[in-house]
Backbone:
């Protein structure tokens, strides 16, 4: 039953706030994490949205320490361990667990094209080395290859593998995944591709991991709760509101700029990313002002 306890609700892949010199803005990180928890959502640090791959190991630990210092054991916290090195992923996972993180989120390494056999063996080693709960993370957009369903199914029966965050955009595969894991009592399915959120939550997916939740965590939580109650009209209305934000914020840099307009953090992103151009900034600000989210 560990899977259901750890993997329910709305889990926000938190953007990482940086100062002008690229250092972690610790005070801002604490405020952002607290804001997400107060909205009834859970914090996921060092995911794709959090620019984990672009940060030094020292900066990553500083961020995790800041969030855990603010939240302690009051809320479930997820942390990613992006790396192409097996030993590093295991070491980071165990270090973050020591700092108080609840769940470690693991995806494939990038660069090398892997066979199913190689994917399975690699992730088996990570899972066996991490001394706590693990959520698998399928994100072909960033890794360059998708975790096959058969590999996920094999890993899902390991004791500390408690769920999957699935960012696959293929609708047919999404349906297959829901059929396989939507009713599992020991393995949670978390929607990572927001266009599938409404359908997936009505199909009893365990949770949703929306980047847009950085800006509208309350709306994301409201949608999740309404879906759990079976209130389709309310869900569709809330999703339309959320979609207004998603229409102008599609990249990490655009979400960060939106957050800066709302006074949540600076718009700075780390290399190789660049901020949005002036036209995109204008559109984002106009939309957020129109929605009453900024001045």
Residues:
């Amino acid at each position: 039953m560990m899977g259901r306890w750890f993997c329910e609700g709305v889990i926000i892949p938190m953007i990482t706030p940086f100062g002008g010199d690229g250092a972690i803005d610790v005070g801002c990180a604490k405020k952002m994490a607290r804001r997400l928890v107060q909205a009834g959502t859970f914090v996921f640090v060092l995911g794709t949205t959090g620019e984990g791959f672009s940060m030094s190991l020292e900066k990553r630990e500083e961020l995790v320490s800041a969030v855990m210092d603010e939240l302690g054991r009051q809320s479930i916290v997820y942390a990613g361990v992006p790396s192409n090195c097996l030993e590093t992923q295991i070491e980071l996972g165990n270090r973050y667990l020591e700092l108080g993180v609840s769940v470690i989120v693991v995806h494939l390494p990038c660069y090398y094209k892997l066979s199913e056999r190689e994917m399975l063996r690699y992730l088996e080693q990570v899972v066996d080395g991490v001394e706590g709960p693990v959520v698998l993370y399928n994100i072909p957009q960033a890794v360059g290859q998708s975790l096959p369903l058969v590999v996920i199914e094999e890993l899902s029966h390991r004791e500390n593998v408690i769920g999957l965050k699935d960012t696959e955009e293929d609708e047919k595969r999404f349906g297959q995944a829901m059929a396989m894991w939507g009713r599992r009592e020991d393995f949670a399915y978390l929607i990572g591709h927001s266009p599938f959120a409404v359908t997936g939550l009505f199909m009893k997916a365990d949770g949703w991991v929306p980047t847009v939740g950085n800006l509208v965590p309350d709306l994301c939580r409201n949608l999740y709760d309404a879906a759990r109650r079976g209130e389709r009209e309310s869900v569709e209305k809330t999703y339309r509101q959320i979609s207004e934000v998603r229409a102008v914020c599609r990249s990490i840099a655009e979400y960060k700029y939106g957050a800066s307009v709302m006074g949540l953090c600076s718009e700075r992103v780390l290399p190789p990313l660049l901020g949005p151009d002036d036209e995109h900034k204008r559109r984002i600000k106009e939309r957020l002002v129109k929605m009453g989210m900024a001045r």
